[in-house]
Amino acid sequence: MSGVSITGGEPTLQRDLPELCKEIQKLGKYLSIDTNGSNPEVIKTITPYINRVALDLKGPQNPEKLEKITGVKVDLDKISETIEFLNIQKEIDFEVRTTYVGALLDSDDINDIINFLRSLGFSGNFVLQQYQYFEGVGEEFRKIFSKPEHDVLLKLFKPYKELELPFKLLLRDDVVGYCSIDEL
Description:
Blueprint: E1 3-6, H1 17-26, E2 30-35, H2 40-46, E3 52-56, H3 63-70, H4 76-87, E4 93-100, H5 107-119, E5 125-130, H6 139-144, H7 150-157, E6 168-173, E7 177-180
C-alpha cells in the first residue's frame, strides 16, 4: 500500500485525526484527506502530515442553496478560509470538486462556483464530477436524483474551456474517468 485516503462523513470532526495523520506520515505513506472545508483549524493542524486535500464544494456560496443541498447551515467564511489556506500550501496537492446533481444544481451555480474560486485566486484543480448512486446511500436518493449524462457535464464546462483561469478544469465521469477539459 503506497497511500491512504481518509474520507467521511467529515473526517475533520474526529478528535484523533491529527494523531492518525502523524502515524500515517511516520509510515511514509502518501496521505489524502477528503473534506467539506468546514473546519479550517483542523486542516491547519494536520497540514504538516498530509500530501493531498480534496475539498467537496457542495454548491455556490449561497447560504440558502447550500442549506438546501446539505440539510444544515453552512459557515461560508470557514469554507473560504480553508480554501485560501490550502491554496498557499504549495507542497499539498489541492483540488476542489463539485458533484453535479441536476435536481440540486444548474449552470448558474457552476458559474457562481467558478467565479468564487476565481475571486479567491484558487490555483489548484476544479473537478466537476458526475453524481452516481451507490448502494447504502439510501433508496430515497435513487428515486430523487439521477446520474447526469456525459454531454450534460460537457455542456456545463463548455463556456469555460477557452477562458484563462488561474486553475485547471477537470471532468470526472464514467465516460472519460478523470480528464482535463482541455483534452475533451
